[in-house]
Amino acid sequence: MLQFTKQQKPAGASRQQLGRRVAPCRPVKPSAPVRTPVVRAEPEDDQSFGKSIDAKGAGSSFTSPGWLTQLNLLWGGKSNVPVANAQPDDIKELLGGALFKALFKWMQESGPVYLLPTGPVSSFLVISDPAAAKHVLRGTDNPTRNVYEKGLVAEVATFLFGKGFAIAGGENWRVRRKAVGPSLHRSYLEAMVNRVFGPSALFAADKLRESARSGAPVNMEAIFSQLTLDIIGKSVFNYDFNSLTTDSPLIQAVYTALKETEQRATDLLPIWKYPALAWFVPRQRKAYEAVELIRQTTNDLIRKCKEMVDEEEVRAASAAVESGQEYMNEADPSILRFSPPPCRDALPCRNTHALPLPPFPSPPQEYMNEADPSILRFLIAAREEVDSTQLRDDLLSMLVAGHETTGSALTWTLYLLVQNPDKMAKAVAEVDAVLGDRLTPTMADYGQLRYVMRCVNESMRLYPHPPVLLRRAMVEDELPGGFKVGVGQDVMISVYNIHHSPAVWEDAEAFIPERFGPLDGPVPNEQNTDFKYIPFSGGPRKCVGDQFALMEAVVALTVLIKQFDFELVQGHKIGMTTGATIHTTNGLYMTLKERKPAVAPAALAAA
Ligand code: HEM
C-alpha cells in the first residue's frame, strides 16, 4: 500500500479554482525592469500580489504602522534602511502560513532592502536584491572578507545537526567541508544515477502503477518525500529506509526532527533554548527522542562500516604484502623504488619504514567502493582525522539537507508541468526521444535531458527551497546601495523575492523553462546569472549537493513521466506553507494513467 500523509483529501470544486493558466512564453530580458507582476502559476489566488512596487519606494506607506513597526522606527531612527509596515495580520500570516508571501508584499511596499520588525528592538534585514544578496553570501565564511555567519539557522538546528558542517562556522566548517565535498565526485554521482536514482524511481513507479490502475488519487508530495528519503538514505549511508513501502519508528523520527527544526524557526516562545524546561513539553521531548534514535542508528551504521573497511584493508594489505606485486613500479622496478603502503592503525604492520611515508596520494575516486559507493564508506575509507560524533553529524547534515529539498523541488516541478500541458508535452517528447523504449536514463542520457533539466531549474526559481537564507552580521557592514548593517543584525535573503521580482525577471510569475536560453547553453546558476538565480545559494556556503540534487530530480522526473500521465484532482486546493522548504498545505493529489503505448512491454518486464 502507498503511504499517504495525514493531509486533507481533495474536495470537490472546479478545475479553474486550482490555479490560473500562465502567460505564454517570452524570452527573458533581465535588464528591463517590469513593474507589475503578470499572471501567476499559483496554487491559490492571493490578492496581495496584484500590487505594484511603490514608486516612492521605502518608507512611504507608514500611514498605519503596527506597534512593532512604531517601536522599531523609534529605536532604529538612526538606521538608513526602510522599516516594513508590519501589521498584526501580516505577523499572523508569517507564523501560520507562507512567510515568503508577506515578505513579497513588503518588498512591493518598501523596496528591495528593508527592516522587518520582529520585536520592540529586534528586526530582520530583508534583502530582495541580487547585488546585495551576492555581497552577503560571498561575505560568509570567506577568508578574505568574513562578515556574516549562519546565525539563527544554526541556533534552531543544533539539536539535530549537532556539530555538523551545514551549520558550523569558521575553521570547523572549512575543515569539514573540505573533507566531505570530494565525496560527491563524478564517479560517485554516476554510480548514484545507475544504482540508486534510477532503480529507486522505478520502484516508486511500480508502486504508483497500482493507483494508476485503480484510479485512486495519489498524494505526489508524499510520494516524492518518501522517494527522496529512500534515495538519500542509500546514497549517504547505504541504508534503505524503504519508506515507499513501510513505515518505521526511524522514518517517523526523521520527519519529527525535521518538523521540529521548522517549528523552532517561527516559535514565539523558544522554550527549546532552555533544555531543562523543554523536557516538560511533550513536543520537545518527542523531538529529543527522535534525534536520539536517528543518532543511535547513524552511530551503528558508522561502526559497522568502519569494521568492514578495516577488515577489507587488512585482507588487501596481507594479500599485497604476500604477493609483493602491489608496490612494484612499472617504470622502475628496483628494490629502492619499491614502496610499501603507509602504516595505519588498522593494518598489522609487517614492514619497517626507515623513511617518512609519502602523503596519502589517491584522487577522491580511489576511496569509492564498488559494492558500497555511499558517502559514509567513502569518508571512512579516506581515513580523515575525525571523531565519530563529527562524522555522524556531518552525515546527518547531508541526509537532512538533501531530503525535503529535493522532494519539494520534484513536487512543484510536477505541479507546474501538469498546470502547463504544452511544457509537459515537450518534456515527455524529449524523454521518449532520449530513452526510446528504456525506462530509466543512464549518465549519458542525463546530459541529453536538457528540457527536463530546464523544467526543474524553472520550478526552483518559482519555488526555491528554502525560500529564505539566514545570516547574522559579525561586524558592521555596508550593502551595495549604501544601506548600513549593524553588528549582530539578523539578515534574511529572500530568494523567493529575488526569483519573483519583476525588476529582476521578465514575466516573473510565469513558468517558462525556455527563459534560461538555448538548451545547449549552460545550466543556470548563481555565477552565470549574477546572483539573480540562487536556488542553491552562492558563495562559500553554497549547497554541496547541487549536482547530486539536479541529477536526482531529472532522473526521477524522467522515470515517472515516461510511464504515466498525471492530472490534478479536480477542485483540490493545494495551498502553500513555509518550512525549511515550500510545502503544500493539503497535499498534491493527482490521478495517474499509464502511458502504455510509449513503453515497450519488454522494457517493462526487464524493469
Ligand atoms: C533541490 C535540492 C536542494 C536544494 C534546493 C538545496 C539548497 C541548498 C541551499 C540553498 C543551501 C545553502 C544554505 C545557505 O546558504 O544558508 C544548501 C546547503 C547545503 N546542502 Fe543543499 N540543497 C539541495 C539538495 C542537497 C543534497 C541532495 C545534498 C546532499 C547530498 C545537500 C547538502 C547540502 C549541505 C551539506 C549544505 C551545507 C553546505 C555548507 O554549509 O557548507 N543539498 N542547500
UniProtKB/TrEMBL annotation:
One of its GO terms (molecular function) is iron ion binding. The keyword Ubl conjugation does not apply. Heme binds at C543. The keyword Iron applies. Residues 1-57 are annotated as: Disordered. Its cofactor is heme. PROSITE patterns: CYTOCHROME_P450. InterPro entries: Cyt_P450 (IPR001128), Cyt_P450_CS (IPR017972), Cyt_P450_E_grp-I (IPR002401), Cyt_P450_sf (IPR036396), Cytochrome_P450_Monoox (IPR050196). Keywords: Heme, Iron, Metal-binding, Monooxygenase, Oxidoreductase. Belongs to the cytochrome P450 family. PANTHER family: CAROTENE EPSILON-MONOOXYGENASE, CHLOROPLASTIC (PTHR24291:SF134), CYTOCHROME P450 FAMILY 4 (PTHR24291). This is Cytochrome P450. It comes from Edaphochlamys debaryana. The lineage of its organism: Eukaryota, Viridiplantae, Chlorophyta, core chlorophytes, Chlorophyceae.
